[in-house]
Amino acid sequence: MNTGFLLDTNTVIDYFGDRLSVTSNEVIEQSAPNISVITRIELLAWPNASLDQIAVMRSFIDCARVFLLEESVIEKTISIRKTYKLKLPDAIIAATAIANNLTLVTHNLSDFGSVKELTVVNSR
User: Fold this and answer.
1) In this structure, what CATH number is given to the domain that contains residue 27?
2) CA 17 – CA 12 distance, rounded (Å)
3) pTM assigned to the model
């Protein structure tokens, strides 16, 4: 049984763009969010973000629990890449959720939905 939620990058961007379901908003607002180090990187490297948006993202990340690339995540990423052919960032995010017993919140169901060990909920 999964014990919490991991937010995909698109979920965080949708949160700040007010494009999430009520349930997804509640998940984010009721506790410190969990994100992968990949989400941190993607948010801060967002090419079209203004300086104000980057400041908001930094504040969000400062409040989040950021999961780093520990050995269990690396090993699971390798397995996912071999089995499902996901892009490396998506494989790391999926592996982070699996290794930490978290449900992934995303609207990218087409890629993540194929990973059998991963519990996924639609953010929209």
Assistant:
1) 3.40.50.1010
2) 9
3) 0.94
Tally the domains of the chain.
1
Residue 84 exposure: Cα atoms within 13 Å on the Cβ side: 22
Q: Are the CB atoms for 5 and 105 separated by under 8 Å? A: yes
Give the sheet arrangement for strand 34-36, strand by strand.
65-67, 34-36, 4-7, 102-106, 120-122
Tens-digit pLDDT profile for residues 18-71: 999 898 898 888 888 999 999 999 999 989 889 999 999 999 999 999 999 999
What DSSP letter does each residue of the chain carry, written as one string?
---EEEE-HHHHHHHHTT-S-HHHHHHHHHS--EEEHHHHHHHHT-TT--HHHHHHHHHHHHHSEEE---HHHHHHHHHHHHHH---HHHHHHHHHHHHTTEEEEES-HHHHTT-TT--EEE--
- With tokens 């929209």, the residue in question is 124
Count Cα neighbours of 71 within 13 Å in the Cβ-side half-sphere: 0
What is the residue range of 65's domain? Answer: 4-122
